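Hi R.,

Here's the input for the nicotinamide-adenine-dinucleotide complex you asked about:
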Amino acid sequence: MANRVLKVGICGVGRIGGNHAQEIGSFPDMFQLVACADTDPQRLVKEVPRELEGVAKYHSLDEMLQHPGLDMVTIGIRHPDHVPAAIKIMEAGKIAVVEKPVATSVAEMQRMLEVAKAHPHCLFLRHNRRFEPAFVKAKQLMDTGLIGDVQYIKLYRSVGYCRRNDWMTMPEFYGGLLTNWGPHLIDQALRFLDSPVVDIWADVRHVISIGAGDDLFKIILKAKNNRVADIEVAGCNAMPGREMEIIGSKGTIVYENGKMTARYLDPTIALKNDLKPHPGQPPKKYGNFDETLNFFTSEVEVPQLSMSVLWKHLYDDVVNGIPTPIRLEEGLEVVKVTEEAFRRSGFKPARV
Ligand SMILES: NC(=O)c1ccc[n+]([C@@H]2O[C@H](COP(=O)([O-])OP(=O)(O)OC[C@H]3O[C@@H](n4cnc5c(N)ncnc54)[C@H](O)[C@@H]3O)[C@@H](O)[C@H]2O)c1
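And here is the predicted structure with nicotinamide-adenine-dinucleotide in place:
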């Protein structure tokens, strides 16, 4: 029997709308692009991505929702318009795929989740960096126990030293780096922590971007299992650092400049467990005078996975009943951390 093919419309044919079209277009057995909508006529005519050239064009989401046989709409419009669009799509009986930030507040997220309850399998969150190859590999490695008990997880991202000046830097549109890159790294951090967050510290600030939204933030999350995640995103760092560092009791995993390295104690040699500290005069050197540790250092191959696998998971959820790994409750947790980080830092994201 032939596969069911979901008919898809793209709402917002801007920078990310083109990516949606390209990614979805790469699964022709699962999806068919049939429509797109944009309030900017220019985007629908002159700048339309190749994959959408032959599809029906609409000037609004409302019009597109009338498209015969439409099953699903992806939302690639401005942050504050995500939830209203998702609710409209679900209430029209279609599947809504929401870009990050999936909501501008916990209250708004909860409104969307209420509607989703009445429309099962109709709401999906595009937390695509859940499938970022380096994240997937580091998480797998960490879960094998190679570096022992995980203590600190540091996630860092630089978007370049940029006096950025589009709407995404404007608080009027819930813009800034915390709402832009925050959801990606908060989602990854929550997965690494693997335990409920019990404490949050945050600093959120504006340094150089043209819009008044934040362009530098740090969030520290402490989890019930005692792990700590340190998330930093910078739009004003002229010398960016490593993207990932996971410190465990028996080693460390680092990801930097596209290279993952693990340095860990030889698992075949048990640590001496009868050692005692020496209270007396030490030899004239620092460290451990009774033990030598054997380390392995290895470069870890990061498989070239595609983040587009998100669409396959979505399809499997809708058509084959296999739940997508990106759960709605996890999306809610990301929104909660974002809101709490703004609150703790005192930096106010404006809402339209
Ligand atoms: N997951 C990711 O990796 C990722 C990457 C980039 C952007 N995004 C998200 O995608 C969203 C869009 O970002 P962008 O960079 O593509 O913005 P953009 O400004 O380039 O594109 C938005 C498009 O939506 C259209 N539009 C606005 N309101 C509309 C409406 N009500 N109905 C129909 N069309 C409308 C605009 O005319 C524009 O063409 C943002 O929320 C952003 O956070 C996610």
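One thing worth noting: The CA atoms of residues 200 and 300 lie 31 Å apart.

Cheers,
M.
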